[in-house]
Amino acid sequence: MELAQDFTRSQGLPRDVLQDRLSKKKLAIQDVVGDGACQFRAASAVLHGTQEEHNVVRAKAVAELIKHPTRYCKFVEGDYNAFCRRAALPSEWGDNITLQAIANAYEVTFVVTTENFEVDHDIVVSPTFPIESKGVLNLGFYAEQHYVSTKSLYDSIH
C-alpha cells in the first residue's frame, strides 16, 4: 500500500512515461488514493466522476463475480468463493479479473495505458458477453502497483 501511495506523488520516470503515453491520446493522469482500492477508485472516477464511489464500483464488481462464476472461475487460482470474499474487502487490490467484472457490470470497455516498457500497446478490457459496450473509458496503470484515472489533457491546462 505504501508503494502505491508513492506512485501518486512520484514525478519520476514511470510517471513521465505514463503521462507521455496518455498525452498522445490527449489525456492526463488523474491521481487516486493509493489505499489498496486504487483500481476501484480509478474506475469510479471515470464512471461516476469521483473516486469516492469506489465502494459502489467494488460492490457491483463483486455482485457480477458472484452472479456469473462460470465467466471468471477458470481464471482464479484456488477457491473461487474465497476470491470473491477477498475481492469484497475494502482494501483488497483489484486485478485483471475484477477489472473484467467491472467492465461487464457497467457494460463498458476500459483502455488501460501502462508505463511498462515491456508493453508498448494499450490493454483493452471489453464486456465478455454479447452486448454492445456503452462506452470506452481510459485508465492508467503503473504495472502491478497502482491504477490512476485519466482526464482530458485540456482540463489540466485550465
Task: Give an overview in words.
- 46% of the residues lie in helices and 17% in strands.
- The protein has a five-stranded mixed β-sheet.
- Helix 4 (54-67) runs antiparallel to helix 6 (80-87).
- The protein is globular.
- The protein has 158 residues and is an alpha+beta fold.
- Residues 1-10 have low confidence and may be disordered.
- It has a single domain (2-157), classed as Alpha-Beta Complex (Cathepsin B, Chain A), CATH 3.90.70.80.
Features:
158 residues, alpha+beta, Cathepsin B, Chain A, five-stranded mixed beta sheet, 8 helices
Tell me the distance between the termini: 32 Å
**Total domain modules:** 1
The proportion of residues in beta strands is 15-25%
Give me the secondary-structure category. alpha+beta
The value of Rg in angstroms is 15 Å
Record the strand order, biggest sheet.
1-5-4-2-3
Helix content percent band: 40-55%
Give a quick account of the main beta sheet: strands, pairing sense, barrel closure: 5 strands, mixed
SSE ordering:
HHEHHHHHEEEEH
Outline type: globular
Q: Would you identify the CATH architecture?
A: Alpha-Beta Complex
Number of helices: 8
CATH class: Alpha Beta
Mean pLDDT: 88
The CATH topology label is: Cathepsin B, Chain A
Low-confidence stretches are 1-10
Annotation, overall tally of beta strands: 5
